[in-house]
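Question (not urgent): is this output format expected?
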Amino acid sequence: MLVEICGIWNTKHNAVLLAQHMLSPFWLKHIRRILMIIPIAIAIGSMVALFLWTLQQSIHYRFQHPWLLFLLPLAGIGIHFIYAGYGKSAEKGNSLILEQIQTEGGPVPKRMAPLILLTTLITHLFGGSAGREGTAVQMGGSIASMFNGIFKLDTADRKVMLISGVAAAFGAVFGTPLTGAIFALEVLTRGKVKYHAFVPALLASLLADATVNAWQINHQHYRIDELPLYADEVSRTLHFNLPLAFKIILAAVAFGLASYLFTRMINEIKAFAAKVFSYAWMRPFVGGLLIIALTQLLGRPDYLSLGVDPEYPGAVTLQSAFQLGGADTWSWLWKTIYTAITIGTGFKGGEVTPLFYIGATLGNTLSGIMDAPVSLFAALGFIAVFAGATNTPLACTIMGLELFGPEHLIFFALACFTAYLCSGYIGIYGPQARTENSSYLRQKLSKYYRLGYLGKSPDQR
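Got this back:
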């Protein structure tokens, strides 16, 4: 009897200790964050669903009315004056969200969400070559900031909610919730991952993606064909295709250089346009004229807008790049030029989907040159060019896992991290591109060069 009483007392005592522990300020803070994430994620997921639906309607409306392309210069002027009249700090877009997360976690304007939604739809309706992730991320940051004001959060909580808002938007727009969480941590925190924000970010991304699915918005699906059996004895022994891995490394170098070209071209066009055109409204006007001229020169509209849905049978799209003959030799370069002009002259949207297109079509081309599997190289280019342009190789490796399955995870990592090392020190996100870890290889080589390390003897080093 005494033993039973002692056992009951110990059980009650442990339960009390557990309850006290769970009600400690540390746990209460995290429980409170999780509860606040729920309405934020649902709101962001609903906005992303609305955006994806209206975006598809806009693109297909242009398919039915191709003459809308000739109004692109006027659309550019309209976008400029919308932001000149109502945008204020919201025009800084993703850079503003990154700055707030990296500094004091201050407010993001509420107007950012409707403005970027409207102007992105205008860009795509009239044929501008842009993406959708930038729009989603800005909407996510704006909505999260709005809830920050409602909940009256402190600096630390505001930063976590902003990171979670970005994760929710990114995960929901591509249907990759784990990637969304890792992307938000990797791209927004200057190489210093804030692990305490991972659970809120992942929860937000999962809930936002579930909300998009609940609204019956479907995402694109891609498939990598089955690879042939190992061709040499060494590969069969190691259960790893060494010749293919070598080809992937070479291709990843090209993917990294394509990332660098894309980012550098956007920056150069922005700087050139700002220098040449004293009136800011002239930049998108001339950019629109250039897009029209290029389309007339090529005689095909394949490189307009997202490049996901085909405007006509046989068009080069993101989907067709996974098939033999599904892309032309220079499709990746044309898409780079189109998108650099569109974004560089002031049109709105994102860069990620065009990066997917550039990488997949470049992978298609390289597969023919290297006698490699087409669908695998398209998938590797899909994620690796994105990794190089955003300095997020880990998130892009996880994206490969979520989009294409776990079978080729080693190849995904090999391609993403190699492209990252070869993509230079710049990226498509301004503040993030200046981080200490943005290019480890470039950083080390620069350091050795400054110190004269390479020119000294071993005794002098």
